[in-house]
Design goal:
alpha/beta; L-fucose Isomerase, Chain A, domain 2; 2 domains; six-stranded antiparallel beta barrel; five-stranded parallel sheet; 18 strands; about 20% strand; globular
Amino acid sequence: MSTYQVPRMKAPLKAVPNEAYLVASGDLRLSANQICWPAQADMEKTICSAFDTEGLIVKRAHPYDETIGHGFIWNQRMGMEVFKSIPPEAPLIVAVAVWQYSYHVLAGLRAHCGPILTVANWSGQWPGLVGLLNLNGSLTKMGVKYSTLWSEDFKDEFFINGIRKWILEGSIVHDTSHIRDLNLKRLPASEAELGVALARELKHNKAILGIFDEGCMGMYNAIIDDELLNPCGIYKERFSQSALIAAMRTISNEEANRARTWLNQKGMTFLTGSDDATELTDTQILEQLKMYIAAIHMADLFGCDAIGIQYQQGLKDMAPASDLAEGLLNNVERPPVFHPETGEELFAGKALPHFNEVDEGAAVDALVTNRVWTAMSLDPATTLHDIRWGQQYNGNGINDFVWVFEISGAVPPSHLVNGFAGAVSERQPAMYFPKGGGTIKGESKPGEIVWSRVYVQDGVLHTDIGRGTVVSLPPDEMQFRWEATTPQWPIMSATLHGVSRDQLMAQHKANHIQVAYAPSVEIADKALAAKAAMLSAMGITVHICGNVKVG
């Protein structure tokens, strides 16, 4: 007779007709979950009412926790436990009104057999749309089927028709007619030749991404396996965040103060105070500039072509925000940094592309942009933005949907109106950034942009790429948009050519979008063509989005 302790599995729970379950993934940071919870609770109430009207009872799979003051799933183990109480075949709703760490619920979603619907409120108050797109990108990478919806009030025709279809059929198909696969024959010969040559050069000489810890903020979709990167000619140098702290300790106050003086002379404004808990202080700025210098030293030492700093768990409790360093790194003109022994200026006259939050899709994109724009003698300054929110704007010669693209500060000053002189550094919100640190806040200058996103789908790399225009909005509209989102962060007011709001939301596989400027429509089209050719020659499947003349 066997003496082994064989695990005895409980029988799976059975789904009940006309009954669905709801889960809510949250932040890993208690302060963020507590502050953002009221918006989540309001959204869930409205969603449940809408489904009830359509005859579907929605049961919340985990209760509000009185002890911690919110009702989010706030870690991975909790998520695994919650999904044990959900019948595997039951319809499942993931409600997103805030930024959320997708890995809290990925284990349960990967194993779930019933129809999955991700839903967000169309609001800029908290980064709910950003959280939704990250979750969708993560599910896409995992190969998990899902449907997705978004709404301002959950009463509009788009939402009601969507949930009716999901209830009846278990899936929703959105309009993605703005997408077409790249046709290499439609690319202009000169730009196609340039892109192919740059891809060959990259595969021959190879590039290194400096990775300061992977998996920032639960962004599963932002991790690209070496097996996909290496054939492109891209490899990883894996650093620990603790190595960055150690390197910062080797930077003298004198070196950091020289960088601060350089920024002051360029006209950058720092809104400082004396309360370290709530205000931006000179000490915080000094630490941020030590991070900037240390990052360049490490990139030089290890031969990195781009770097990504995971400023979240761990680092957020050790140092001020990385955003000032990130934005400076992405700019060609920036405070000079010298080799600690030879005195040689490092990366002189060059941007050192930084991919915010260690988003490796953005890393590939930034690296390619840097190579193409530099070869075309264009300003290679590039950054990613969160797809934060947006709404229709009529006036000032504009009649279009204008997006709010907004990131926490990693924007190069050359993207801003008046450059460094138009940049203001404000303290990061305390609920996300307990050690403070300043942003590079400003309004993005009007002009033509190429936008794109590298992502993983069906086990291979893809890129969506399109064109857009950054528009200038009146001061009162800009202030409204800042107050409706995060007023400390830089904003890009963008219209996308031939891509509607709902088309972008339906297709985009990430919370981030990469942007780079071109000086004219004609040159933007050429730069897009060269970039598409390089990505394709690297072995990445390229999709042209919207009204693009080439490809």
